[in-house]
Amino acid sequence: MKGYKCRFCGLKNDHMQMKCYSKPTGEYNKNGTEKMARKYVHLKCDEEYKNNEAFKEKELKELDELFTYLKKLHRIDTLDGRMMEKIQDLRNGTVVFNKKKIKRYKEGVPFRDILYTYEINETYINETLSNMVFAAKWNEFSYVFAIVINNINDSIGAASNKETVMNRREAIIDNNLVDQTSYSMDETAKYNNNKKDVLDISEFL
To answer: 0.85 cut: is pTM over it?
Structure first.
């Protein structure tokens, strides 16, 4: 019996105990049918697999937004390997111990917070770029990246406070809407009751 490897845990099993995810490849077989790319996941692993895929999709979207911002900021067509390594190390929380890099995975600063730090320090960064001359784009990137690292804790705190304020503001608006709705319903009920009283009295006239 042929076994399939689970894309989440890596263990093989019979396909009857697995869920298949398939999507077209854009290529075709000799008989004209479209080739499909298939992934197999244990039924017990499926929920964690879907959560992991959603997380990776979110990470990719946030990295793409940061990538686009940095290209525009530094006026470059792409980020080289050293630049991407710095960003990934900050995202992963990679540390250097005894001159050795200890790699981690997604334990550092989220891409959205890195981007936010660039954005709120944009005026200062642009002034710095206008007043300094760098030997190469790598030097420019590294200098600005150091500015971001020095300000990232304050930025995360500001972002957290901003989110808290927004959440409180939304809660206040929601509560006001509920209060207004309740008030309107009470007023309608009172009006209907008063109207009923008038009609009842008129019946005796």
So the answer is: no
Residues written for the chain: 205
Position 165 pLDDT exceeds 80: no
What is the end-to-end Cα distance of the chain in Å, rounded? 92
Pairwise CA distance, residues 147 & 151, whole Å: 6
Least Cα distance to 140 among 124, 150, 129, 127 occurs for 129
Distance CA 107, CA 126 (A): 30
Whole-angstrom CA distances from 186 to 4, 21, 158, 191 are 63, 53, 41, 9
d(CA 155, CA 168): 20
The number of CA neighbours under 13 Å toward the Cβ of 175 is: 6
Helices (H), ranges, the chain: 46-74, 81-92, 111-120, 122-131, 137-202
- pLDDT tens track for 57-96: 999 999 999 999 999 999 999 999 999 999 999 999 987 7
149 near 109, Cβ under 8 Å? no
